Amino acid sequence: MDLKTELSSFIASDRILTRPIDRYAYASDASYFRLIPQAVVQPVSIDEILALFRFSQQRGIPMTIRAAGTSLSGQAVSDGILVDISRHWGRVTVEEDGALVRVQPGAIGAFVNTVLKPYGRRIGPDPASIDSCMMGGILANNSSGMCCGVAENAYHTIHSLTIVLPNGLVLNTGEAQAESQLREGAPDIVSGLLDLRRRLIADSELTERVRSRYQMKNTNGYALNALLDYEKPIDILTHLMIGSEGTLGFIAEAVLHTLPNLTYKYTGMLYFKNIQEAADAIAPLRASGVRAAEIMDRASLRTVENLPGAPALLRQLPESTAAILAEYQGASNKDLDTFRRSAKQTIKKLALIHEAEFTEEPGIQADLWKLRKGMLPSVGAMRAPGTYVLSEDLVFPIERLAEAITDLQSHFKDHDYSDAIIFGHARDGNLHFVMSLALNTTSEVMQFKNFMGDVVATVCGKYDGALKGEHGIGRSKSPFLETEWGAAAYAIMHDLKDLFDPRGTLNPGVVINANPNSHVSDIKSLPVIEPEIDKCIECGNCEPLCPSRRLTFTPRQRIVIRREIARQRTAGTDAPLLASLIDDYVYAGMETCAVDGLCASACPVDINTGDLTKRLRAESISTRGEKAALWLSDHFSTVEKALGAGVRLGHFMEQILGADAIISLTRLTEKLTGLNLPKWNPAIPHVPSRLPTTPRSGAAYVYFPSCVSRQMGSPEPHSASLAETLVTIAKRAGIPIWIPEDVNGNCCGMPFGSKGYTAAYKATLHRTLGRFWDWSEGGRLPIVIDTTSCAYTLRNSCDALTPGDHEIWNKLTLLDSIEFVHDVILPRLEIHPISGDVILHPNCSARKLNLQDKLVGIARICAKTVTVPLNLDCCGFAGDRGLLFPELTASATELEATEVNARSYNGYYSSNIPCEMGMSAATGRNYRSIVYLVEAATR
Fold it and tell me: Where does a domain end: 768, 794, 822?
């Protein structure tokens, strides 16, 4: 009996992934390790987790529970059963008016803060990856960040946990009977914990060492402080689970104490002659109340000195310079007044080489933090192909920071890591170094091993510091646990692991690891593949924004599989495996990619995986197919008419047969022909009867109704079309707009470009820009575009233009309808807000154009209340993807649709007809353009 068959006896088979492509897609986390799981399982309940524990122990197959997989130390990979909780464990509930928050481990940290924001609260942990990492990892690693320090981490802000132990016991530690349940259900664990506590307390030297080491950041090993801080086994257990990296049990739910959201900030960059003088400033800055003090050596400043918005001063700094980004944070202006005075007095005492300039302007503050946060990406972008980005995490006594930095810089030089940089949370003595790392040859592995040997000796021997302050121990540091803690402490940690997991099947090799070379074992290679994605560091930051993440693959997984295909081609030893990966990638990697580009907005090295998908699609197109696309481009008026005829026929047949019957007929035709055909969608708008007639004389703007609005621009039969409605409100505002008589047959080219028909895309774009030039009178008149995805395409088409077209494009003013309505029309209208509540879907193109705030602004002026879903996502409709692969839209909209349908609204609005179709289909609600809301509020 194969593994999937055995697992399917207690978990639905569609949530057991054993195809090679799925197993390899999950073989990587954000570290340099790679282990290929035997199966990836996606449980939905505690009962299924319990069954997995039993199965793992009975079969002796190791089991690793993984949330976001943003782990930097290799604790989220497995060669056994990988349990993916990212899809079905995301519930967040606010309690006690925001004082507490109940979270499941698959909830993203930033989403939890978004839910808490209306209450003026936040969670304590603030890892740099909070926009992508999940609560399971935050809790399991005891993550912190720039401001969290020690006092606000998960250990100190945990209220209670729901824990599933490997022996089958399930405990909610917040319940009154939890203590008795633990004693009855796991008497061996209770006695073992109490014995270990007595053992630790009996060793006075070790007791003092544990207490002192947890005064600083330290995530290396189990939380031995729990044995000292608490007497009751249930409290010890609760806090031991924090930072245990999934090796002692499963955290099914957590309740955290929340903290005030400190929204008042005072931020400045301080420059010092050298690292010693910068380090000397940390103590007085701490005393003054600074919340963040990010130290940066000259090498790190050099990596960001050419970024947009970087002060010119950075390029002029001497080689010995160091800097501190300091920020004070408060809950009120009164707090900020105190900090201003404190900062002023403190700065006078510091040896600065340039006058300190503090700011309260959010935009400038954001620019300063972009410099600090851009350091890792900069190293990642500049590294040689085939190398990793290593981001390490060390803690030193604050008073010896300068000396420690100097020692680290010496190690970089001695071992020839010339691009290494140092920065970090100096307020807590927590330093990070980032460098490119090659591990492709035996000599490169030995180079790294020797380097780490020197680093460990320096951190543990010379400074008695911590090898991990916030990243988690994982496979990268577990071999050095005893070196840092000593034999007695290590023995207690070893016994803790045996107490909870005597069979050693739960995330083995993490925390406790008998292999002294685990930090240089199971290394993943990074073959050079495609230029669009070679810079990928597999961090996973892109994943929360990907519309296909709950259906097939994320951008990271697409890249991981492209690399695996390259490995297999090079090895040439397993032809069936290679063929399987290539065949399955077509659907999982290419066909269900929405190419919306949102991944690039979260990627630290600016990778748009959609660009890869479009190129791969282009490479799969035959010469005949490209010629056909060019013919369609040249005869686009015919294409438009055919589209309109198809929409009319679809609505006619729907009235006769019903939508389900049409879809069934389409599916049958697909089976018979082997073709993938568009499926009818009842949310498809109707074809407008005609475009409005508008005079050219006196026009202040050219209005370009997109091809989709020309053929699907009426939400209901015989209703006012989008073009008619936009013309109506412009007329009310006294703004003359003109729709050219020859507008039909012109298109932004996106339908061709997104499918990889590059020549047809460029030809269409060339023709349309020529029309724009004529209509706009050589660029004099701005052009308004009523479909945001088209506006985005046109405004970001420069790479596809000829030099002549580029010159035209530079002189054109292209406006999306959102900014036209917000900036031009609304100020000239008398508004009568509708009395109801409306909900918006700011589509991905609007977000990429930074128009979300204007869309919300329009709605706030025109309606009583406005809601933007917390679970806002790309709808995945992606032009025709939602018709060809409706399962993509259904999956992409699942969370948002559930939130939208939790109550009723008086209007549902967006700014892109395909997205409105997708959201209408997903919710059963009638989404339409924001232009209709403006028309209703200005009658």
Answer: 822
